[in-house]
Write a structure and sequence with these properties.
With 303 residues, this protein is an all-alpha fold. The chain has one domain. It is 74% helix and 0% strand. Helix 4 runs parallel beside helix 12, helix 5 packs antiparallel against helix 12 and helix 8 packs antiparallel against helix 11. The longest helix is centred in the middle third of the chain and has 33 residues. It is globular. The N and C termini lie close together (10 Å).
Length: 303
């Protein structure tokens, strides 16, 4: 059975969480996911819980957007902290710098997944009946709002749902492939904190995408929009894309430009960040299915 690379390196950088204490890491992830959902559900149902308040009744259609956007902003703050805090922490104590930035950062990453999960499930229109008719409009599939024929609505929903499920399954496969190809150390951002210990990666996927992991997150997010196909789910995915834009521009790629200079700027100008060109979709599929020549060679070496 193929083992996950980089696990020992990942554990090495968590000196205070050795042995059974490593369980803290997945627990933080679960807590981040749960916290993100609680924040969003609180805003989903706030107006219905306090239905006698006329101001909250007016705000009800906007509350789901506010809840998800606040979750994304909090996640952005926690994730960007990896880049904002790591240099100072490295100066104080290099051996513990990683664990001090990655745990809150991991909390933030799982909050992003809570937004995507929330986008898949129609919490906006579930539960207690909405008290503002506009709430149902923003949470209902646009197919039902635009089409009159029940048969056309049914067929359209089947097509969209099927496509969304395909994208979701493909995204999950791509995440698994990425973990096994790059290893737990790279995926766990160990070398973001300790770049001097890293090696330059030249996998084929980097020829078509600058950030394949973020691309997968956006792909699953896109699947959530197609699955729901509501105004709410569309706006949240747009906001998620804006989050990645600011994160890359002001933190991750800013540091990469400082490290690699003009060479990375040229690479940035030539290769898309999150969405492959249409001509490169075949390469992405080969990567996900493990059919690229480079991956086959790596698999042969490991055997």
């Amino acid at each position: 059975m193929k083992t996950l690379k980089g696990v020992e390196k990942f554990k090495e950088k968590l000196p205070n969480y050795q042995g059974k204490k490593i369980i803290v890491v997945p627990l933080i992830g679960i807590t981040g996911l749960t916290t993100g959902l609680i924040i969003q559900l609180f805003f989903d149902y706030l107006s219905r819980i306090f239905s006698e308040n006329p101001s909250l009744k007016t705000m009800e259609p906007y509350n789901p957007f506010i809840g998800s956007m606040l979750t994304i902003l909090l996640a952005f703050y926690l994730i960007s902290g990896i880049w904002r805090r790591k240099d100072n922490l490295l100066k104080k104590n290099k051996s513990t710098a990683y664990q001090k930035v990655i745990l809150p950062g991991f909390f933030g990453i799982t909050m992003i997944f809570s937004v995507i999960f929330h986008n898949f499930v129609p919490f906006v229109t579930w539960g207690p009946k909405p008290i503002n008719p506009a709430t149902k409009i923003v949470g209902t599939s646009m197919i039902q709002l635009l089409l009159d024929s029940k048969s056309n609505i049914y067929i359209s929903n089947v097509v969209l749902t099927s496509f969304a499920i395909i994208l979701l399954v493909y995204g999950i496969m791509a995440i698994i492939r990425t973990f096994f190809l790059f290893g737990m150390d790279y995926m766990g951002l160990v070398y973001t904190v300790y770049p001097d210990e890293s090696e330059v990666r030249n996998e084929e996927i980097y020829k078509i995408l600058r950030h394949p992991t973020y691309s997968i997150i956006m792909l699953i997010g896109l699947a959530s929009f197609i699955f729901r196909f509501s105004l709410y789910s569309f706006i949240i995915i747009v906001f998620l894309r804006i989050f990645f834009y600011f994160h890359l521009k002001y933190y991750e790629e800013k540091e990469l430009i400082e490290r690699f200079g003009r060479k990375y700027e040229e690479y940035r100008d030539e290769v898309p960040a999150l969405f492959p060109r249409l001509s490169d979709i075949g390469t992405h599929i080969k990567f996900t299915l493990g059919l690229s020549k480079a991956q086959k060679n790596n698999n042969d070496k490991e055997k």
